[in-house]
């Protein structure tokens, strides 16, 4: 699919990998809706790329429905969905105090990262199937953002790894399901990237993490994630695939 002229939805578009992807889509000519719970930051990004900001909690169907309606009113029906919103967590099953990890924490991460991503995807797909086919024979593209933690989860990452593993496992059946509607589905599993969250760590810690990456021995750049995300859109034969973007990194147990 050609990106130029298409309407695109980016969840988590106010910062980090989502912001970089929103900016790259706009650079390539897309009309971008920046969805995020942080509406002030979303408005800032949207203003800079001539997009539209939509406050959105992907776990809430009314919130998603309202955001998609706002995006459609501004840009027309979207054919591109970039699922990048997500949260992290690190808790040992049994803490130092001997108590079990709170179930609520596990459920919260699953609810946002996995169920929330599915929620907006199902609603996006229901609208996308109504659109006419493009010249290349497809209707739309959606992408999920997993993590290398889906494969190499570290100590304490049970919730995060399970949520991202769910996205990787969902990719192929969703691609098969939506094939009849000419909608492609792929997932990117990034490694260690220089996001705002990463930059909050001490520089020595960042340097140590970067040194663990075989090549190139540095943190990934958000723009590199964005470039791959946009390639998924333009490469018509990419479908049902999970792509690691990690510099050959394999995470240690801790």
UniProtKB/TrEMBL annotation:
<dbReference type="InterPro" id="IPR036291">
    <property type="entry name" value="NAD(P)-bd_dom_sf"/>
</dbReference>
<keyword id="KW-0560">Oxidoreductase</keyword>
<dbReference type="Pfam" id="PF00106">
    <property type="entry name" value="adh_short"/>
</dbReference>
<comment type="similarity">
    <text>Belongs to the short-chain dehydrogenases/reductases (SDR) family.</text>
</comment>
<protein>
    <submittedName>
        <fullName>SDR family NAD(P)-dependent oxidoreductase</fullName>
    </submittedName>
</protein>
<dbReference type="InterPro" id="IPR020904">
    <property type="entry name" value="Sc_DH/Rdtase_CS"/>
</dbReference>
<dbReference type="InterPro" id="IPR002347">
    <property type="entry name" value="SDR_fam"/>
</dbReference>
